[in-house]
Write a structure and sequence with these properties.
- The protein is an all-alpha fold.
- The protein has a domain of about 110 residues.
- It contains five helices and no strands.
- Helix 3 runs antiparallel to helix 4 and helix 4 runs antiparallel to helix 5.
- The two termini are about 15 Å apart.
Length: about 160
């Protein structure tokens, strides 16, 4: 196949080590992580890059000017929330970049494998049509497994 972008196999040892490290990171963070429903996510006000400086400055001012803090504002909890959100932001960005690269690589590898399978399938189909010995058995087996309709990414 021409233009094969994914031509270097990732050693199983590397994949196993990566999975181990992902499991370790998940275990380390598990006591601190929260799972939200889509509805809960939708309802929450979001802190983005523009609101980050606002929140940071409000926290600084609230610590320096406690006279303005409402009695129901827990400054320690505010500090914990901001600091964790700020630190997790860096982790989320790193994980999102890693995910995007993993997803792209998996997509290319899967697409190229599917294209190679189609090349082989069409070759066997042609050979079976010309009664080449052994081709019909292979063609019949592959024909039964041939995906019909639109292909989803994970179907590949």
């Amino acid at each position: 196949m021409k233009n094969n972008k994914h031509s270097q196999a990732i050693p199983i040892e590397v994949l196993t080590e990566v999975q181990t490290k992902i499991d370790e990171a998940s275990t380390l963070l598990k006591p601190y992580l929260i799972a939200l429903t889509p509805k809960e996510r939708q309802k929450l006000p979001k802190m983005g890059s523009k609101t980050l400086s606002f929140v940071e400055k409000a926290l600084d001012f609230s610590k320096q000017n406690q006279i303005f803090n409402p009695s129901y504002l827990d400054i320690d909890a505010f500090s914990i929330d901001f600091n964790d959100a700020h630190e997790l932001w860096a982790l989320v960005n790193s994980v999102e970049q890693l995910y995007a690269n993993l997803d792209d690589t998996e997509m290319v590898a899967g697409s190229e494998a599917f294209q190679a399978a189609l090349l082989f399938y069409n070759s066997v189909k042609l050979a079976a049509a010309q009664d080449v010995p052994g081709a019909k058995t292979i063609y019949d087996e592959l024909k039964n497994r041939f995906p019909r309709g639109k292909h989803k990414k994970r179907d590949i």
